[in-house]
Each structure stands twice: as structure tokens, then as C-alpha cells.
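pipeline/complex-builder :: batch 7 item 3
reading input block
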Amino acid sequence: MPSALPEGEPAPPSGELPGYAVKALGSAPFGVYVHVPFCSVRCGYCDFNTYTLTELGVDGASTGTYADVALREIALATRVLGPNAPTVKSVFFGGGTPTLLAASDLVRVLDGIRAAFGLAEDAEVTTEANPDSVTLKFLQTLATGGFTRVSMGMQSAVPHVLDTLERTHDPDNVATSVAAAKAAGLKVSVDLIYGTPGESLPDWRTSLDAAIALRPDHISAYALVVEEGTKLGAQVRRGQVPAPQDDDEATKYELAEQVLGAAGYSWYEVSNWARTEADRCRHNEGYWSDGDWWGVGPGAHSHVGGVRWWNVKHPNAFAARLNAGVSPAAGRELLTADQRYDERVLLAIRLVDGLPIDDLRPEGVTAVAGLIADGLADGPSAMRPRRVVLTLRGRLLADTVVRRLLAF
Amino acid sequence: MSPMARIALEPHATPPDLIRNFCIIAHIDHGKSTLADRMLQITGVVDPRAMRAQYLDRMDIERERGITIKSQAVRMPWEVDEITYCLNMIDTPGHVDFTYEVSRSLAACEGAVLLVDAAQGIEAQTLANLYLAMENDLAIIPVLNKIDLPAAQPEKYAEELAKLIGCQPEDCLKVSGKSGIGVEPLLNKIVRDLPAPVGDPDAPARAMIFDSVYDTYRGVVTYVRVVDGNLNPRERILMMSTKATHELLEIGVISPEPVVCKGLGVGEVGYLITGVKDVRQSRVGDTVTNASKPGAEDLGGYSDPKPMVFSGLYPIDGSDYPDLRDALDRLKLNDAALIYEPETSVALGFGFRVGFLGMLHLEIVRERLEREFDLDLISTLPNVVYEVYLDDGKVITVTNPSEFPAGKVGDIKEPVVRATILAPSEFIGAVMELCQARRGTLLGMDYLSEERVEMRYTLPLAEIVFDFFDALKSKTRGYASLDYEPAGDQVADLVKVDILLQGEAVDAFSSIVHKDKAYAYGLMMVSKLRELIPRQNFEVPIQAAIGARIIARETIRAMRKDVLAKCYGGDISRKRKLLEKQKVGKKRMKMVGRVEVPQEAFIAALSNDAASGGDRTKK
């Protein structure tokens, strides 16, 4: 079951934004996220807003008609953001499984974005991909259409771990798909999950080594979070599967840092490592640096100038709204200055460049010395003057660090 | 012929030989209030339509728990052989904590109705009160109640009662308070068998206070039984123990609503209003006399209420402290036994150390504070009062473990009680085992019948305070009953066990326990806290210590990870909301040194479970 949307105030049917938010456009990089809410099967741990094809009826949105519906929301976005909307610096197709759509449809949506806002010369355009659902031809079509990057859902190289996660892909296909993406001229990222029940430390090491052997440009590693409402969540609650252990996940994170570091990958966000600065995912950096983005698709979240909003979750409801000329936004939050400050602290601290000390309020500045003394943060250095940067220990305890910086 | 009296007798002018003063001795649930209700109805003082269940129990808690905390006295007319009598039914509190109040109620009567559930037989408290009544030379009327219950065994329990009070089984009346069966014969028997009060009408007035209740509108209402002379409106009265004088603003009887009268004479029971605002100025057991013509001596038997159990009460929300103070000040007006003084705890903030007559008194006060004053409270583990003898000859009275002197001390004295336990004989072994584990000494044992036995023990009060009653009930499948009364003190091998978080003692968890139980207490608390206190960014040792000696230890390992792995689009709102929640939750965190302890951990650690000592940890 997809997780619930946040609570907020109702969004206006026109999708209209407050004037101050629109005016703020352009002061930060602008991106577009496209959510593709389809999967061939739902994995046991997943609480994302995605639907297997059989869950949906034929009416409304389906893989065949989805691109058209998405383009309709992009048209709405141009009306809402107005003529001064900035050029798009990054596009990210996520899911779900975007590669369940035809490559031509993905390109068609990208074309729509380009036509609506313009796409920067060096724009980063990523799609997530399931190793089982891409071919060289598919990837070539994407590359030709303007895609620059593909993020492969590898999760693990160990069969019993993939089984527990209910990932159905064939581990061997990962290598084939990565090779195909490279051949098509795309940058490659692979996603890993650690802390799956039953995963040993050597298992995790095997997965890390396998990921490195693919020589991707970028690796993400996420601790498994057991979400309520998922099949795995129910299994854990019933005691059929042990819950992930924080200590085990901490050890695995430390191993990841060590192994990835030795292989030439540097962390730039708590869960993300890249070969070089140019290999970082700029789209995601926008999320952590107070960037603006429009999220297209059911359940997609957007942020523009201190306003966060989110769309209705179900693809059919989403399609119906757009077909009726109504904004698919279900709710929104107009962030207060205090909330924006809290967000800035909690997001920026996740980055390797850390948090500018000058951005902190006095109580935050006061807390810095203690964080350094406790080995949670490094103080300003020649490389990063006037910034607080998490240590390895601090990266694992980022929550604590945030609470201390916000002084509660 | 209706036995209902045609004309009630006029107070002040009632000849003593037409008065019968009695009380009902019964166990909780044995139907005293229902029987009293039925008497009110049958004697006609309450209109059947106005009848509400348990008419005499005023407070909500009493009504809900089915127990009587405060006694009252009702005047009822009753006709026997065409002579109208005046019956004064003096309601007695039914619990062990209020033994003194019971004794004063009994002292106001010439006779007692011993009311026993015909399906359950006599219980320990009833037995204790029966003995008290017999010591006071009260005439006893044995009555079996609930005889219409299918499980009733009136013959069997009549034997038991007969043996206890030395009468014939057939002397036991069989009634049903619920249906009214046998209530008229009981009223007749009260008139025929109970002695009339005797006193000197010409002597200076002497009346005994057997209850004192604060009323928001009237101030203190004092219930008295006149022994000699008479009390009249507008005269000045003198409280013989406190030497305070008051003007009698109003005098009356309860029937069952207050009725103003011209005065009270020998043997009569009624109420006085003097305008005082605090029950401490009109104390139960004191003798009231005429200020201008005082009696030579008081009636005797007065003693100050003495708190036996102490506990710290703290508001969960620190800003409620002034409200808690006001609430205690209000309750005090109506509760002469309630004492308290401000106290601060490192762990719990500002609160009060409160003294109670016993555990029920504690529970009732706590419940009233929460219910009537809408306060959320934490209470610390209850403790008794210790006398600690120092080497230099000084004696320290310890009502809070934190006052326990550090370093070497001489003798330590703890209060002991004389306990009476009634149980089916199959549980003798279980009861003995329990009492032994609680440092009890068997004083004697008697069979009430083949199946029921009365066991008498001395036990340290501290052991009873620690969930003894629950343990007794669970070991006897609910069949045992318990009564106890203070029986002095004894020297015992006691130690203070401190609980330390990262080397810092948490005052709220310190406890004075017997040396042999220190380890069990320490172990129980440290393992409990290990479960309750969330991991911190550093390792937190939890230790139990006697002085500098560590007797138990657990460690909460340092938390290594709390970061949220994924933080993209929608996660940001989620994460910020979580943070906002944590900010609010932080207010409920208490700091012990550097350790953050959620308020819930204190509540859970101090809950009844924790009070079970070594007992429950074995399960």
C-alpha cells in the first residue's frame, strides 16, 4: 500500500501559487520530477506511490496513455509558473518503474518539458530503470531524446536478500543493463539497499563489491526502512521476519563508506557517493539545497519558493482531474520562516559541503562547538570555510545533530 | 399495620430510652449501602421515587467503588408495639486505612449490625471491626445478607458467625437488602435488642465528634453524638482538645437531608455548623462542650491522625504545580489526615511529599486530584516512615528516601502492623509463604470453620505498601481478605538503594528496602529502566547502589544511527513534521545529567509493576 500523503491545507483547484512563491522562481535551480506510478509487481518493502498494472482499470491512466496525462500537467505548470519560469536544469523520471513506459513516451514527456520551459544546455536528465526492463535500443532512444543518466535499481547482488525484498530481477541483468547504458552514452548510477532481514555483513560486502565491479559513476546506498502498510511491515509485525537493527545498519554504512571510498567514490550526501563532483546527481542536490521543482504525476511533491504541495495519489483520480482542467494538487503547505529554517538545517547538513555557519541562528552557532567535541561534526576547514560538516559518526547520527543545531 | 412511624419524634425532646444508635459493620461489597438504602425507604424518610442507589455515599468515587469513605448519621423513626422510636444509623467507613474513624463511629453507638454476605462469609476487615465493636461493649446483631442469591449458604455462615460472637446460629437474621426481605424484622430487633443510650441530662454538655465534613456552602459540618447534657443553637461551644471556641450557628439532624432543630439532648446524634472552614478545627474524636459551662473531662479516645505512608506527587506538566498546590489545599479542608509539604526532585521537578493514612487513602486522594481537579500526576513509590538512629545519639525521621543519611548509621526502626488474614484453609501454605517472604511473623491461627482460617501476623508496613494485597489476592485466587492495624515499630536491617544513570542518582527511584531484598529491587529497576530509556548518543550505565557499592548494573549502549536514509521530495515534509513532533515531545523529556529520559519512562518505572519488589520478577 502506498504511504499516506502529508497533512496540509487544501490546494486551490487552479493550482495557483501565492505571488511571493512565483516571484522567488529563478533564485534557485529549477527542476522537474516526473513520477511514473507503474510497476509490474510490487516489492514487499515498497511504500511508494505505485500500482501494478492489474491494480488499475483501463479507464484513466495506464502506461499507454500516461504520457499524455503527464503532458497535461506540464501545460498546467506553465500556466501556474507564468512567463518568467526559469529554464529547467534537471529532470528526473522516478517511480514506480518509468521504463515500463515506451522509450518514445519518456522522450515525448521530456520534449514537452523542453517546449514548456526550455532545457538548459547542460541539463541532467535521469530515469530510474529496472534492470529487467531495458534494452540497448531502449536506452539509445532515450539518449538520442536528451536523457543523460540512468539510475539502476540493483538493491543487492545476493539472491536470498533479493528474495526477502521480493525483487524479481535477475542479478545478471544488472551488468548487462549497465553495460548497455554505458554503450548508449548514459551516465550510470546504481541503488543498493542494506539492512534487509537475513543479510549478513559478508552479503553486504558482496553487494558493494558487485556494484563497484560495474564501475558506475554514482552509487546510492539506503538503509532498509520497514514501512507500515507494506507486506514486509506486516511480516515484521507478526514476527515472521526480524526487524532491521540500527546497529547492524550502522556497521554496514561504515563498511560502505570504507569500501566505496577505497574504490574511488566519495560521499556527497548521507546516502550518495559519486566518482567525481560532475557525477553527483544535480537533480537530487536541488532537494537538499532549497531548490525549486515541479513534481508531475500522481502523489508527486513539488516545491516552489517556500510552498510545498502534493498531488492526489491515485493515477485514475489524477488523470480525471487533469482531464477536467483541474489541478491535481491535493494539499499544500505554505512554510513559515521557522519551518524553512528547520528544513534548511535538516537538509543542508546531509551534504558534504555541510551547512554554512553564517546561516545558523545564534543557538545553532553555539551548538557547533559541542558537535565538534563529540566527534559528530568537523568545524570549518581551509577547504570549507565557515561550514559545519558531518563526520562519519555524525552522518549516522544526523538526526541528533539536527536537534542540537535547532537547540531542542 | 404499617410499621412506618406515624409521627417522628422531635429532636431535643426525645427521651433517651426511645433512641437506638447503631452502625453497620460490613465488608466492601457485602451490601451495607444497599441495606441502608432499604432502611431509609422502609422507615419512610426517603420517598421511594427520590431513592437513588447508595443514597448515603455522596462522593462519586464512593459511588463508583462502592465504598464509603466518609460516614454520616441518619435519623429514622420506627414504630414497635405502637411506640415510636428514633433510630440513628451511623455509617462507618469500610476500609483499613480509616480504622481510627471507624473506632470513633463505633464509640458513638450502643450496638452494631454485623452484616455478612451469605455467599462469602466474614472477611478480615469485618472481623477486625467486629473485634473493635466487641471491645467497645457494643451489642451485636448478626445478619446474613443477600440470602436470595443462588450461591448463598446462610446455614454455613450462620455457624461461622455464631462461633465468632458466641450466639446461636438461629440468632442470625437473614435479609436481602436488595429485595427488602427481612429488613423490617431487623429494624424491630434493633429496637428490642440494642440498649438505649445512657447519660446525665443535667451535667455539662459533652458530645463526641465522630465525623467532620467540609461543605462548600456551609463550611465544616460536624457530626456529634451527645453523651451528657445538651447542645443548643446560639451558644458557644468549646473543642476540648484544641481549646478552640465557636458559636453554634446551626444545629440539626440528618433525615436524610439536613433538618434544623432546637438542639440535641442525651443520646442524640446530629450535626453542628460553626462557620469554620477547615476540618482540622473540628477534629474527629474530640469532645464538644459548652464554653460557659464546660465539662470536667473530655470523653477520651481522641488521637491525632498519623500518616503512615508517604509518596511524592508531581504534576506531569510542571506548569500545573500551582494547580496541584491549590487542589491539595482544597482537599485538606475535608481531610484532617492529609498532610503535605513542597518537595523538589531532580527527575520530576516541583511537587509535594504527601502523607497518607494508608494505600487506599493515597489512591483516593490521587484519584480525586486527577478527577476533580483535572491534574495529570506522577507519584513516586510509596514509603513508610523510618527512624534512623545516628551514632551521636540523634534520631532522624525519614519520610523520603532522599533524607536517608549517608554513611554509617546505627539502628533503623520501621513501623510494623498486626495483620489479620482470612482465607480458605487450602491457601494456608500460600499465605504463609507470602508472609514469610514479606518478613512476617506468625502470631497465631484459628479455624473459623473447617474451610476457613484466620491467620494473624506482624508484618513490616513497608512490605504491605509494596503490593502485598495484590499478591495475597493472586495467591489465593481472590479469596483472602486482609486487615491490619499499626503495632509499633521494630529494628530492621534496612538499606537505601539508589539508582544511578551515568553515575547520577535519580532521586525518584531511591528506595529504602530490607538488605535481603536490595539486590532484587536493584536488579528489577535497572532492567526495567534499560527497557524504558531510549538509547542516547553515548553509553549510559544504569546502576543500583547501596552507598558506594554497586549491586546491579545494566548498560544502554550508545545509539549509533538515527539518520533517515532517504530524504527526497515528499520525505522532506514528513521529516520536518517528525522534527516538529520531537520538539513538542522534548518538553516531556527530563534531563538526568546528560541523559534524556522521557516522562513516560518515569511513569512506567514508577507504576505499580515496579512496586512489586522481587516478587514479580521471578515470573
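note: Chain B touches chain A through 25 residues (CB under 8 Å).
queue -> next item
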